[in-house]
Specification:
- The protein is mainly beta.
- It has one domain (2-98).
- It contains no helices and 10 strands.
- Strands 5-4-6-1-9-10 form a 6-stranded mixed sheet, with no helix packed on it. It has a two-stranded antiparallel ribbon with strand order 2-3. The chain has a two-stranded antiparallel ribbon with strand order 7-8.
- 32% of the residues are buried.
- The structure holds iron/sulfur cluster.
Length: 105
């Protein structure tokens, strides 16, 4: 399980810079830089959209990751102890990224 900090505060699943999902998917199968990755589980918070006010932040979660060029990627699972997803103000998943991505050297 990976500790996740997420600054995408306009995502439906974000509470207090944490994600309330039990598992997320990070996309970016051809990524060579962090900006080429994105959080595939992003859902934009919209006016009037249903949000479960009682959702609890998960500080550790399963991360399935398509960014196979990353040093932390092990069989499409993230093996990092801690990652950060960034993209405050995102209105689309492509505006988010895994800031912890590091290209295999
Ligand atoms: S650190 Fe690497 S393996 Fe982990 S989620 Fe980010 S891009 Fe994927």
């Amino acid at each position: 399980m990976t500790k996740l900090e997420c600054s995408v505060t306009n995502c439906l699943h974000n509470t207090d810079n944490c994600c309330c999902k039990h598992a997320i998917v990070v996309d970016g199968c051809d990524a060579k830089e962090a900006y080429e990755t994105c959080c595939g589980s992003f859902d934009q918070k919209k006016e009037g959209a249903f949000q479960n006010l009682f959702q609890t932040p998960e500080s550790r979660l399963e991360i399935d990751c398509e960014a196979v060029n990353c040093v932390y990627n092990e069989k499409r699972r993230c093996s990092a102890g801690k990652i950060g997803i960034t993209g405050d103000g995102a209105s689309d998943a492509s505006h988010t990224e895994c800031a912890t991505f590091r290209m295999r050297g």
